[in-house]
What we know:
- This protein is of the alpha+beta class.
- 47% of the residues lie in helices and 21% in strands.
- Strands 1, 6, 7, 8, 9 and 10 form a 6-stranded antiparallel sheet that branches. Strands 16-17-15-21-22 form a 5-stranded mixed sheet, sandwiched between helices.
- The protein is flat and about 120 Å long.
- Residues 397-542 form the GGDEF domain.
Amino acid sequence: MARENRFLIVNVITALGFATLALVSHVVINHRVQNSLRANLGLKAADAAFQLTQSVNESVRSMRGLTARLSVDPSLPYPTFTQLASQSFSHQDGLIIVEWQPIVAAKDRQSFEHSVRKQGGRLSDFHLWEPAQDKDSSMPARARDLHVPVLYVYQSLSSSSTTMGLDLAFSPERMESKWRSRDEGDPVASGLFPVIRFPGDPIQPVGFAVTVPVFRGGIIPGSLSKRQQQIAGFVGLIYDLKKLLIQSKLPDYESLGLNLTITQQAISEPSIKISAGPSTGIGADSRALIFDTPWNIRLDATQKYINSLKTPQDDILPWVIVVVGVMVLGFLVALERNVERLQSTRNALIESNALLQKSEQSLKDLAVHDPLTNLFNRRGFLERAMPELIRSQRYDIPLAILMLDLDHFKQVNDRWGHQAGDDVLQHVAQLFETSMRSGDLAARFGGEEFVILLSHAGSKQALQIAERLRQNAAAIVHHAAGEVALAGSVSSSGVSDFQVTVSIGIAVAEPNLGIDALLAQADTALYAAKASGRNRVAIAGDPVAPTSMA
């Protein structure tokens, strides 16, 4: 009896031991699968965000020809609009409607409607309308200061009814993105909303719009006030979000066993949901930025998807452990290796992300600097000069602009070559940079033209600084081989020496004078200095300073 008891005890202990090992292995397996699942879902959600963003960006770029034509001919005929829109229209990215939405002042409403009706055809009864209170019918558009009607429509939906005449100004929510695109000068995406494809549309699918501003002349003005004055209208690109998901290069999440939910960030409704079954509570989110409008893309795994990631061994291994306990050690060793691999992959992703951030910063620096002189370029200068001018005018701080141009610079390139010309530009840029005070700003505007912003400097101090720069620039002796010495020195290489002078125009900031006008005054003064014999300094509104040729 004692031996049987010992045997029973051994059996119980052995059974409990292997049962414990089986339970531990089951827990470890589930943990590994869930970690792998979360990483996999994160990558898939990020890929979905990228594909959606890429698809919309390509669609907007395909409309450049249409927007360019509208910028020079806002009242082009409807057949011409249809032809241009059809050439750029893509049925693979969820784009369902292309609209031309001109801005019409209240005083021009009647003449505008009359001129459109004169085109005849489907435009013969054109009028401005908006949805009625019950949203199932339409009514004439109410009077308002500015109307933004849908003048022309090109759509994929085969319907005799369209949104032609719909006054979008009835909806402050829709107009918010349009005014933002006008003020920023770039396309702006709206939030998600029910798309009205034609009056009384019973379906109104969830979609969004990308508003592309169209400015008269085709050039985006540099200042906010000019953008507000020169806006001609907007090209509206309306998307059916569900079609966008079906037609873009995204996998079939429903067949994979993944639930997809897309919402505007921080706003739960309206939304698009593709359900593959009950969620297990394991999911991942990713952020897609569609022309400055953030979307949240969430993928939730169903049991079907989790099972697809499992191997057959994951289900049978706990039972195998009960029979063969020694397999536990091998499984733990393999599990440890998998964890190490996952950690290695994570570290590689962190390093890649750091490199991407570094590359992004380098690209931002390149976008605002001149690669030859390492000074700011026009864009970088304007980004920094406008706040300085505003601060100067607000706190009554003196500020001046120097516009500098190298005299007869073309002769340098023609006689000694472009490399010598590049050397001259670099040497002069170094002179400007080392001569600046703290708070001053120097930039190369293009070619041989430079501009310097002098903070805390009135006309007298600006003239002194400009004269010193003119004299120092004229004192530099340039060599065709690239060497630079003070005037009077002899090049050790025996090559030709030459000097380059500069002409300088000065403009002083005044109240209510914008940066463009201030630059224009400095440019005018520069041309006055040029016309007076070059190698001179001139102040806007004053005679040319009495400086002579070196």
